[in-house]
Amino acid sequence: MSVRTLPLLFLNLGGEMLYILDQRLRAQNIPGDKARKVLNDIISTMFNRKFMEELFKPQELYSKKALRTVYDRLAHASIMRLNQASMDKLYDLMTMAFKYQVLLCPRPKDVLLVTFNHLDAIKGFIQDSPTILHQVDETFQQLTEIYGGLSAGEFQLIRQTLLIFFQDLHIRVSIFLKDKVQNSNGRFVLPVSGPLPWGTKVPGLVRTFNNKGEEVRKVEFKHGGSYVAAPKEGSFELYGDRVLKLGTNMYSVNRPMETHMSGASENLAAQTQESIAPNPLAKEELNLLARLIGGMEIKKPSGPEPGFRLNLFTTDEEEEQAALTRPEELFYEVINIQATQDQQTNEELARIMGEFEILDQPRRSASKGDDLLAMMDEL
Amino acid sequence: MFRRERSIPLRGSAAALCNNLSVLQLPVRNLTHFGVVHGPSAQLLSAAPEGVPLAQRQLQAKEGAGVSPPLITQVHWCVLPFRVLLVLTSHRGIQMYESDGSVMVYWHALDAGDASLVQAVFARGIAASGHFICVGMWSGRVLVFDIPAKGPNIVLSEELAGHQTPITDIATEPAQGQLDCKPLENRDCVADMVTADDSGLLCVWQSGPEFKLLTRIPGFGVPCPSVQLWQGTVAAGYGNGQVRLYEASTGTLHVQIDAHARAICALDLAPELLSAAEDTFVHIWQLSRSPEGGYIEVEHCHGECVPDTQVCGARFCDPSGSSFAVTGYDLAEILRFSSM
User: Fold this and answer.
1) Residue A357 contacts by C-beta under 8 Å, 6 or more apart in sequence?
2) Partners of residue B93 on adjacent β-strands
3) Nearest by CB to B262, which of A4, A183, A197?
4) CA-CA to B23 of 20 to 30 Å: which in A378, B120, B173, B226?
5) pLDDT (tens digit per residue) in A69-88
C-alpha cells in the first residue's frame, strides 16, 4: 500500500524493543555499565546513517518474516544474547504494543506523534553519548522532512498499511490485560469516551442550511459515547509536549511481561496462507534485506568484554517450556536462504556476515559458504 | 430499534479499508451476496434470509511484479441494465468477474506511468452508471468502461479528469431511481454520479457517451472516504467524523452532522442514510424534504455500538432499510442487524 510505512514501523517497533530490554536488564540485575553498553550499541546501530538511508527509501513493507530477521540482528548488535524463545517473546510484545498504538491513534497523523514519543524516550537512554544523540536528532529531521508535509489522506493510507500488517495478531499481553486495554479474547478495547482527535467536533449535532447558506435548524441527537474535545494539538517539533501518551514507556521495573499463547491466533487458514508464500518473492525480499542489514554497521566487540544472556522469562525453565509449547501457527519462520540460487545475493550476504561475529557459539570449520548459510538459518 | 441477528462467519478477517462490504440483494432468489476484502484475497459468500451461509468463494488479486502479494482495495457488485458484474480493484489493476465470481471477464493492468516513486499505485472506487462501470485511480483519474450486454468485450471508453488526489469512492444514482423518475424539465443537468477523493473534493457528473462535470464541491482538509447519491442528494462522510448532505446539481450544503468521533468508513443510502465509522458506531438517519422550502432534513433514528470493533464496512441488506450488515477490522464475521 503506502511506500512510506517502513520507517515508522521500524522505529516504533525498535522503540518498544528498547523499553522491554531496558526493563529486563534492570529486572535481571545486569550491571549498570553493561546494560548501558547494550542499549547504546543497539541504538547506535538502529540510527546508523547508512542504515537510515536504506530504511527511508520509498518501498513496500517487508513480510513479518523479513522484519523479524532485522530485529534478530539488531538485538544481537551488542554483547547480549537472546535464546529463540526469548526473542520470540520480545517480538510478540513489540508487535502487540505497536498494533495497540496504531489502532488507538485518534487521527492517522498521530502515528507520527507516537514515533516522536519513542524517539524522545530513546534520547533519554543515551543522554551521555552526544554522537548517538546527534544521530537520533538527524533521524528526527528526516521524519519531519518526509512526513511533516503529508496529507491526511496519505496518513490514512499509512495507517491502513500498518493495520494490514498487524491483521489477525491477537496475542494476549499481561500488562494490557491488567490495564484493561485488551480483552481476554485478545482484542483491544476501543473506548467510546475521552478526548476526540484534533479537528473532530463532539458528535451530537445536526445543522440544516438554506440555499443562501444560513443555518435554519439545529438539532441534537444522542450519539452513544461520552467524548470531550481535544485540549490541544500535540507538538511535531524536535522538543515539545506530544499530548498523546501512546508510545511512551509503559514498562516500569516491576510490571508483568507475560504473554499468553493459547487461543492467541485465529483464522489459521489465513495465517498459513502467508507462511507458504512463494519463494520467488522471498528472493527479491532477500535483496532488500541484504541492503538493509548491510547498512547496519555492527561493531565488532572491542576488548575482552564477556557477553551475557538475557532472559525474557522469569526463569530458565520457563524459557525452555515456552520454546516447547509455542503454537505452530505462531512460529516466526526466518527467511529460507537456501531457496535462492542467486550468486550475487549470496555474495552480498557473505560480505555482511563477514562483518558479524557471534560470540559464544562454536562454528564448524566447513567451507565459508556453507558456514554462512548455516549461520543465517540459525537465526 | 434493531436487534443483533446471527453473524455470518468469514474465512478471513476484514482488512482495515473503507467501504469494505459490498452487498448484492437478490430478492427474487431469496438470496443476499456479501463481498469482503481480507487483504490479498477477497471473499464472496451468499446467504439465505436468516443469515445461513450457503456458498462461498475466494478471489485473489492478480499477481504482478513486486515484493509482496498485491493487496485488494475494494470489491463491489455493479448492477447494469442487462447483467451484474463483480469488480475487484487492487494495487495491480482492475479485475471484472461474472456476478458469482466464477469467471474473470476482464483485466485491466494499472499503468504506473507518471507515478513518482513515493506514490502508492492502486485502483479504488467502483460504481455502475447505466451501461458503464467507473473505477477510480490513485492519480485522481476515473476510468469509464463500456460494458456490453453480455460477453467480455469490455472497452475503456473515457478517462475523467477532475481530481488530483487518489479517488476514495464513487457513487451513482441507484438503477431503480432512474427507472422511476419523472421526466425532468432540465434534462441537461441530471447529476447521476459523484466521485470523492483523499483531499475531500467531490465532483458531480452527468453520465453519457461522454461524461460531463457538473459541479465541484471542495474539501476542507480531510479525506472523504465514502460518498452516496440518491434522488439528487449527495451524502458524504469525512475523515473528521462529519456527514454532509449537498444538493447534487448545485453543490449547495444543506445538512452538516457531527456524527462520529473518528473517521467515517462507510455510508449507505436507501432510503434511510446509514453511517459507520472507526469509532465503533453505526448510525441510521431518516431523510425527508421539508414542506416549506423543499430542503433536505435529517433526523437521527438509531445508533448501534459494535463494541471494540473498528468498523470498516456497512450496508443495508434490503431495499426498505430494515436490516443492515457490518464488517470490522480483524473480525472474521459479518455482523447482521434487523429492525424489530
Assistant:
1) A300, A301
2) B109
3) A197
4) B120
5) 889 888 888 888 898 889 99
**Considering only alpha carbons, which residue of chain B is nearest residue A207?**
B256
pLDDT reading at A137 higher than 90 = yes
Q: Could you tell me how many CB contacts below 8 A there are between chain A and chain B?
A: 187
Nearest to A270 among B17, B38, B199 (CB): B38
Q: Which residues pair with A198 in a beta bridge?
A: none
φ, ψ (nearest 5 deg) of residue B332: -100, 45
Q: Using CB atoms and an 8 Å cut-off, which of residues 265-294 of chain B contact chain A?
A: 279-281, 283, 293
| Helix ranges (DSSP H) in chain B | 175-180
- Determine how β-strand A193-195 pairs with β-strand A226-228: parallel
A282 to A66, A275, A292, B277: CA distances (angstroms): 9, 11, 15, 37
* Residue A47 included in any domain: yes
Residue A49: give the domain boundaries.
5-191+236-252+307-356
At A376, phi and psi to the nearest 5?
-65, -40
Measured between its terminal Cα atoms, the distance across chain A in Å is: 29
Verify whether the Cβ–Cβ distance A273 to B117 is below 8 Å.
Answer: no
Does residue A271 surpass a pLDDT of 80?
Answer: no
The reply to whether A228 falls in a domain is no
Q: For the segment A172-196, what is each residue's pLDDT rounded down to a tens digit?
A: 988 899 999 999 999 999 999 999 9
Position A275 confidence tier, pLDDT thresholds 50, 70, 90: very low
Q: How far apart are CA A318 and CA A55, in angstroms?
A: 36
B320 contacts: CB under 8 Å, gap ≥ 6: none
Q: Please state the length of chain A.
A: 379
Q: Is B336 on the interface with A (CB under 8 A)?
A: no
CB < 8 Å to A60, chain B: 66-68
Average confidence (pLDDT) over A280-303 = 62
| Domain assignment of residue A241, yes or no | yes
Looking at residue A286, what is its pLDDT? 67
- pLDDT of A358 over the 70 cut: no
| A34 falls within a domain | yes
Grid look-up 424539465 returns: B185
**Is residue A61 within 8 Å of A9, Cβ to Cβ?**
yes
At residue A255 the predicted structure's pLDDT band, cuts being 50, 70 and 90, is: low
Across B122-147, average pLDDT: 96
d(CA B263, CA B282): 12
Residue-wise pLDDT for B38-62, tens only, equals 999 999 999 998 888 888 999 999 8
pLDDT digits 0-9 by tens, B302-314: 999 999 999 999 9
Statement: residue B240 has pLDDT above 90: yes
* Structural domains of chain A, count: 1
Q: Which amino acid is at B107?
A: W
* SS3 of residue B304 by DSSP: strand
Interhelix angle A32-46/A110-125, nearest 10 degrees: 140
Specify the CATH number of the domain B2-339: 2.130.10.10
Which of A239-243, B186-190, B198-202 has the highest mean predicted lDDT (pLDDT)?
B198-202
To the nearest whole angstrom, how far is the Cα of B309 from the nearest Cα of chain A?
7
Q: Do B225 and A157 touch (CB under 8 A)?
A: no
Amino acid at B235: A
- Closest-CA residue of chain B to A158: B120
pLDDT of the residue at A267: 38
